[in-house]
Amino acid sequence: MAVATKTETDERQRLLAGIPAVERRVELAGISTPVLEGGEGPPLLLLHEPGAFAAQWLRVIPGLVGSHRVIAPDLPGHGACEVTTGELDADRVMAWLGQLIERTCDARPTLVGHLGSGPIAARFAVDHGERLSSLVLVDSLGLAKFRPAPGFALALFRYVARPTARTYDGLMQRCTVDFAGVRAGLGARWEPFEAYTLDRARSPGGKAALRVLMRELAIPVLPPEELERIAVPTTLIWGRHDPVMRLRVAESVSERFGWPLHVIEGAGDDAPLEQPEAFLSALGAALDGSRQ
C-alpha cells in the first residue's frame, strides 16, 4: 500500500486534534493498524463504515470516554491502515478483528458496527460470541438484500467512479437529512474531514480495500439461521430516513430476533455524524440494556 503523503498526514492530524483519544499503531494479522483509544471503563469497540476511517466517530467519542474505554481503529486498508504483506480477504479481516480485541480489550467489549462494518461485527458475534459482551448494529448492511434508493445508488456510483468534492457532496446529500447541519456541526473539522476522505478514496489501496470489504463482507446477506446463533445481547440503532437499508428492514429483524430497535429521528444512514446526541442516547440505552 502506498505511503501517505505529507498532505494526507497533515489533514489527518488536523482532523484528530482535540479528540479525547490517543492514537497508536498496532500490527494485527500483518496489517499495520492505527487505533484511537481513550477513556476508562468497559471496552467499547467502534467499527466505522467502509470507505471512511476512525475519525467518523469524532462527534460521539467525547460523550463516550467518560464511561467507557473507547477503541476506534481504521478498518484494514482504510484511512492510515496499511496492509503490509499479502492480500486482503474476508478471512484476514475477521482474523484482524479477533487480534484487535485481544490486543486492545482487557475485558469482553461491546462491538459496534456501522453500515458495511455491521456484517463484520455480526459475523464475529456468530462465531466468537463468547469474546463479546454485546453487539450494536447501526444502519447495518447484510440483514437484507442491498437495494438502496435509486437516487442514493446513482450518487454512490458517481462518487466511487470519480471521488471529487462535487460527487462527495452529492453522496452526502443522499446519506443525510440535513447535510448543511452536518457541515456546521463539524465546524472547522469539515474541511480536513472532506479532504482526507477524498484523498483516501482516490488511493489505489483504499479503492482495493473498499472493493474487498463490500464484495466479501458487507453486501452478502447473512442467513437468518446464522443470525439466530448470535447469543450476546444485540441492539439495532437506525436512522429513520436511511436510504440504503430502509427502516422497515430493521423493524422486521427486530421483530424476528427480539433485538431492541432505537430509531434516530432526523437522520439518514450516518446518525453518529448527523445526530450525535440522539445516537449517544440510543447507544447508552443499548449498553444499559445489555447489562440487565
Reconstruct the topology from this structure:
Blueprint: H1 6-16, E1 22-28, E2 31-38, E3 43-47, H2 61-64, E4 69-73, E5 82-83, H3 90-104, E6 110-114, H4 118-128, E7 134-138, H5 150-161, H6 165-175, H7 179-186, H8 190-202, H9 204-218, H10 224-227, E8 234-239, H11 247-257, E9 261-264, H12 271-274, H13 276-290
Helix pairs in contact: 1-8, 5-6
Description of the molecule:
This protein is of the alpha/beta class and 292 residues long. The protein is 46% helix and 16% strand. The protein contains 13 helices and nine strands. The chain has helices spanning 6-16, 61-64, 90-104, 118-128, 150-161, 165-175, 179-186, 190-202, 204-218, 224-227, 247-257, 271-274, 276-290, and strands at residues 22-28, 31-38, 43-47, 69-73, 82-83, 110-114, 134-138, 234-239, 261-264. Strands 1, 2, 3, 4, 5, 6, 7, 8 and 9 form a nine-stranded mixed β-sheet that branches. The longest helix is centred in the first third of the chain and has 15 residues, at 90-104.
Entry summary:
With 292 residues, this protein is an alpha/beta fold. The protein has helices at residues 6-16, 61-64, 90-104, 118-128, 150-161, 165-175, 179-186, 190-202, 204-218, 224-227, 247-257, 271-274, 276-290, and strands at residues 22-28, 31-38, 43-47, 69-73, 82-83, 110-114, 134-138, 234-239, 261-264. The radius of gyration is 17 Å and the shape is globular.
